[in-house]
Structure formats: C-alpha cells, structure tokens
C-alpha cells in the first residue's frame, strides 16, 4: 500500500541513477557468456556432413554479441580439424535477418564507462572473421534477410554466400561515426570499379539479386528454397568444395526470381567510377557538386549527413586495404576501432551533423588532418592485433559480379 506514495520520489531520483543503470546493463552484457541464456543465442549443431551455426536472436535481428563470438570461434576451429565435418553452414534464425550487425551500443557504453569491451570485442570479432576467411573447408553463408555490419563479417569472407530476394546488404557505419570494418577494407575496394567506395561512403542498401550482381553474393536462390538447399548440402557424402559448388550452382540456375532484373546501380556505374575515383573526400564532394545530375546531388545530400571524420578515415582505409592482405586489413581496422572507441576521439565521431555543409566542415578538419591520420592509423605496439599472414582460402569473387565497370 505504501509503494504508490513513494513512486513520485523515485521518479525524481531516477535521472541521478542513470549512470548506475547504464553500468548495470554493461555488466549484464559482459556476463552473458556465463549465463544459461547465452547458450541459446547461437546454436552449434552437427547435421550430416556439415557443422551448422545458427545465430539465434531473431527478436534482435540476430545481432552479434561477445558471447556468440566466443562460442562460434572455438567451434569453427574444432570443425576444421574434425575429419567427419566436410563443410560449415551459417544462417540466422527467423525470417527477417541473417545478422543485422554487432551490438555497437553496448560496446560504446562500455567504453565510456571505462570497461574493456571495446578492446576485446573487436579483437575477438576480427579473429572470428579471419578464421572464416582462412577456413580450408567449404563455408556457406545463407544470407537470407538483413545482412549488415557484423553480419557481413561472418559471411563475406567465406567461400560461398547465398542471397535471396529478401536479402538486404549494407555497410552503414559512416552514418554512426565509425567505418566499414569486419574486413570491409579488404572486400569493398575489390568490388567492380569504385562500387565498394560508393557503398562505404553512402551506406547504400543493395537488395535481393543486386547483392549477387554486385559480386558480394556468389549465388542467388528463392528464399523458400533455403531449407531444401541446406538439407541437400548436409546430406552430401564426404563432399569436396566442388561438390558443394555444384549443389549451389544447381539451385542458382533454377532460380526464377528477378531473372530479367537490371542491376539497380547499372545505369550509374560510369558516374560512380568517375565521381568516387578521387584521392580525397574534398575532391569527391567537389565532383558530386560539379556533376550536378540528380543522382550526384542525391549522393551529395546523403554524404552531408555522414560523419566527415568517418568519411575521411574510410576513404584511406579502402585505399590502403586495396593492396593489403586480409590479416593486415584486420590489423589496420583494429587500430581504427580502438581510435574510434578511445577517449581521444574527435567529438564528430559520436554525433550527427544533419545538413551541415560538408565542405565547410572539411575546411575545419584540414588543419588537423595529419593528426587524425597519425592518431587513427598509427601502430599500437604490443596492443596491436598482430595477425599472422596466412593463405586466404576464400574464392575471393568480389570483383566477378555482373556489374559492368
């Protein structure tokens, strides 16, 4: 009976308790790997000849967290050595998403609270991405539904990526003050022409068959055929990579969805290749403004809503990543992740600028551009990721899409 009378007092005090509540959320997130609930966030099963990973957080669009990563990585390594496991399949639970990304909010809040999550989350996530990219056994990602950020990292570096009419691909990090990580510095500059640069700068969403035409997916099938495809793959007898490819090719060739559809960016590829070939963001902005076409002005409007620092950082990331090994890209991206999450970050990384004119902001950044690059890209000594360069087993078909360059 006394609780209603106390409620107004509690409401007045709630704002003061906000920091504690935030810390409590972070602690709960950090302890997830110790809870029984975490075991159901990712399902690791042996089905026939295959090891099957199911990211099992459909209500959260299968967003990737640290407890999931810590279960997936060791199991992937075990299956690599298991003579009875011939391929690995990864998929998302539910009908909306493969994986919509990583839990960036929890990471950022942990960083502000002085917790170590920003250090070990990215280190362990990139280790998982690298394990996928160097996995000697066929790795099949069924990217049905939303596939962004961290979801791209656990799919794009594998041998095979199977998209459907429900697939939505994007790397939207420049809109939130970050950069397209999880190996974006490797696969994006290897797409046709300057398509990867365009996707990284604008966060443009590719949907359905366009994901395949861009060279990101290796195959395209109907969403309703996914279960049958998985069944056929798991029932193979001691399959080789070629046997797996044959099954995927068969489904791809039989697909009737969007057969005549033209690539959504097809008519704009000449402009994309020209406008996004500049050596600096200032030049790209000038190119877009000078072009003046409806397409160019639309991209200019989009870019003005992004973080200028992120754009500059992303452009250099892709230009350098174009000639680096996958492991060296992850090392570079780990440095960037720590700079973004560290307290020495420029405030621009944690806010939106709305319609603020980008060129004016670039002028403000010119004086500190060298400091930005030295801070973000500098080696971190013993704190560096330091991945050993190994053979990249993936087919690396990123530049073999249907896009004309």
TrEMBL record:
Keyword Ubl conjugation: no
Localisation: Mitochondrion
Primary site of residence: mitochondrion
InterPro entries: ClpP/crotonase-like_dom_sf, ECH_dom, HIBYL-CoA-H
GO biological process: L-valine catabolic process
Signal peptide residue numbers: none
GO cellular component, one term: mitochondrion
EC number: 3.1.2.4
Enoyl-CoA hydratase/isomerase domain location: 51-343
Gene3D superfamilies: 2-enoyl-CoA Hydratase, Chain A, domain 1 (3.90.226.10)
Pathway, per record: Amino-acid degradation; L-valine degradation
Catalytic activity: 3-hydroxy-2-methylpropanoyl-CoA + H2O = 3-hydroxy-2-methylpropanoate + CoA + H(+)
Protein family according to the UniProt entry: Belongs to the enoyl-CoA hydratase/isomerase family.
Protein name: 3-hydroxyisobutyryl-CoA hydrolase
Origin species: Podarcis muralis
């Amino acid at each position: 009976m006394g609780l209603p009378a106390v409620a107004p007092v509690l409401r007045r005090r709630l704002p003061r308790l906000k920091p504690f509540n935030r810390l409590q959320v972070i602690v709960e997130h950090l302890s997830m790997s110790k809870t029984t609930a975490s075991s159901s966030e990712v399902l690791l099963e042996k089905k026939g000849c295959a090891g099957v990973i199911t990211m099992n957080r459909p209500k959260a669009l299968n967003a990737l967290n640290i407890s999931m990563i810590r279960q997936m990585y060791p199991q992937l390594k075990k299956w690599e050595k298991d003579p009875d496991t011939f391929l690995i399949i990864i998929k998302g639970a539910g009908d909306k998403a493969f994986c919509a990304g990583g839990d960036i909010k929890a990471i950022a809040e942990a960083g502000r609270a002085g917790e170590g999550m920003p250090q070990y989350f990215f280190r362990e996530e990139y280790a998982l991405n690298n394990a996928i990219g160097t996995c000697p056994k066929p790795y099949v990602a069924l990217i049905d539904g939303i596939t962004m950020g961290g979801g791209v990292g656990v799919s794009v570096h594998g041998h095979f990526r199977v998209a459907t009419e429900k697939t939505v691909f994007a790397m939207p990090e420049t809109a939130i003050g970050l950069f397209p990580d999880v190996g974006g510095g490797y696969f994006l500059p290897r797409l046709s022409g300057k398509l990867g640069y365009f996707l990284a700068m604008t966060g443009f969403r590719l949907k359905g068959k366009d994901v395949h035409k861009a060279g990101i997916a290796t195959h395209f099938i109907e969403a309703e055929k996914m279960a049958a495809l998985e069944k056929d793959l798991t029932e193979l007898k001691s399959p080789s990579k070629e046997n797996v490819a044959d099954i995927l090719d068969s489904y791809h060739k039989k697909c009737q969805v969007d057969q005549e559809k033209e690539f959504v960016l097809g008519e704009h590829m000449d402009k994309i290749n020209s406008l996004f070939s500049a050596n600096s963001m200032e030049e790209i902005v000038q190119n877009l403004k000078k072009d003046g076409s409806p397409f160019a002005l639309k991209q200019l409007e989009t870019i003005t809503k992004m973080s200028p620092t992120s754009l500059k950082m992303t452009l250099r990331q892709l230009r350098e990543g174009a000639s680096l090994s996958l492991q060296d890209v992850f090392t570079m991206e780990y440095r960037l992740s720590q700079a973004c999450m560290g307290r020495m970050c420029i405030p621009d990384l944690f806010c939106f600028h709305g319609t603020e004119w980008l060129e004016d902001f670039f002028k403000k950044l010119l004086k500190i551009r060298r400091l930005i690059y030295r801070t973000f890209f500098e080696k971190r000594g013993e704190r560096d990721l330091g991945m050993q360069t190994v053979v990249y087993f993936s087919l690396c078909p990123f530049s073999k899409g249907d896009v004309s360059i």
